[in-house]
């Protein structure tokens, strides 16, 4: 192999790499450029969707952008691998030119990954700080009380353990607890557990946070921007009936939320208050999940003194 043809070859390689990069960039531009558009086109790259809170949208954008960056790097690397495999395949018994190292190349493949990690770290830190941000005056404060194996949601008149509960909803073996919340308001959650560690998780919020017993009061804030009904789950293995620990988040307008809370304050049950804001009949109960048949009488492990579910209780495989 002459020195001349070798130089020509490496120039061709650089040209190919450049073409690959600009081709990918062009593809991105043509595909509408927005991260949301790319996410929609590729099934959100494994996420449930772009989320229903302002915080979730930021995490979603970070996720889509990170996957795109990973794919660009991946396509470039796969290209190089296949190019080398084909271009330098064995052609005879003659040993190829033996080289030791290439300093610019060594520097390049040390600096590039460090740069990529630094950029990913920067954007992750920015989004995480934003998601964890607590405002001084949230519009609503909800105390999440987790217990084996259900949820209680207390609407509070202020922040901290000393504030008072003005209304609350609680789940049972037969009724899924419903958490009604307003859109476009800053909602602060304060979490506490009566027994073991649980975890509050609404997949559509793209966020979960552990609920600890004792003095720990985990807090976080969200601003919902999409009305609807969304399933919530316990995301920390907390015992026998952990899988049954579901709830439902109902996001409504501020006006309807105020009506709901007013009805609850006047002593209405959760289902009556749901009816007061237009969710009548079956709609007054959870629609995204349903109670499991706990069969607590038959399988009474971990349930000393357990009360059997009343006759006629829903016998279902829950969603
Ligand atoms: Cu749990």
Automatic annotation (TrEMBL):
Cofactor comment text: Binds a copper A center.
Pfam families linked to this entry: COX2, COX2_TM
Organism: Paractinoplanes brasiliensis
Keywords in alphabetical order: Copper, Electron transport, Membrane, Metal-binding, Respiratory chain, Translocase, Transmembrane, Transmembrane helix, Transport
Domain called Cytochrome oxidase subunit II copper A binding: residue spans: 137-263
Alphabetized InterPro entries for the sequence: CcO_II, CcO_II-like_C, Copper_CuA, Cupredoxin, Cyt_c_oxidase_su2, Cyt_c_oxidase_su2_TM_dom, Cyt_c_oxidase_su2_TM_sf
Catalytically driven reaction(s): 4 Fe(II)-[cytochrome c] + O2 + 8 H(+)(in) = 4 Fe(III)-[cytochrome c] + 2 H2O + 4 H(+)(out)
Membrane topology value: Multi-pass membrane protein
Name by which UniProt lists this protein: Cytochrome c oxidase subunit 2
Record field: transmembrane: 62-86, 107-125
GO molecular function: copper ion binding; cytochrome-c oxidase activity; oxidoreductase activity
């Amino acid at each position: 192999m002459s020195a001349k043809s070798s130089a020509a070859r490496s120039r061709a390689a650089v040209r190919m790499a450049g073409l690959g990069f600009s081709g990918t960039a062009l593809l991105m531009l043509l595909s509408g450029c927005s991260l949301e558009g790319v996410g929609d086109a590729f099934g959100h790259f494994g996420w449930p969707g772009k989320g229903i809170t302002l915080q979730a949208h930021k995490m979603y954008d970070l996720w889509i952008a990170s996957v795109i960056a990973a794919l660009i790097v991946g396509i470039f690397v796969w290209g190089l691998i296949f190019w080398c495999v084909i271009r330098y395949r064995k052609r005879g018994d003659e040993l190829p030119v033996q080289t030791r190292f290439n300093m610019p190349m060594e520097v390049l493949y040390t600096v590039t990954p460090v740069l990529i990690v630094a950029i990913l770290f920067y954007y992750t830190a920015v989004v995480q700080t934003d998601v964890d941000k607590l405002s001084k005056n949230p519009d609503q404060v909800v105390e999440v009380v987790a217990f084996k194996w259900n949820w209680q949601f207390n609407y509070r008149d202020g922040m901290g353990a000393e504030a008072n509960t003005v209304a609350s909803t609680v789940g049972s073996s037969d009724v899924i607890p419903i958490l009604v919340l307003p859109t476009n308001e800053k909602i602060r959650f304060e979490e506490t557990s009566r027994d073991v560690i649980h975890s509050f998780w609404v997949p559509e919020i793209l966020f979960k946070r552990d609920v600890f017993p004792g003095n720990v009061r985990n807090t976080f804030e969200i601003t919902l921007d999409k009305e609807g009904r969304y399933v919530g789950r316990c995301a920390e293995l907390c015992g026998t009936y952990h899988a049954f620990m579901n709830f439902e988040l109902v996001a409504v307008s501020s006006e309807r939320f105020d009506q709901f809370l007013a009805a609850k304050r006047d002593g209405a049950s959760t289902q009556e208050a749901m009816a007061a804001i237009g969710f009548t009949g079956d709609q007054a109960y959870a629609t995204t999940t349903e109670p499991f048949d706990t069969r607590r009488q038959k399988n009474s492990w971990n349930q000393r003194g357990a009360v059997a579910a009343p006759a006629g209780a829903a016998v279902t495989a829950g969603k």
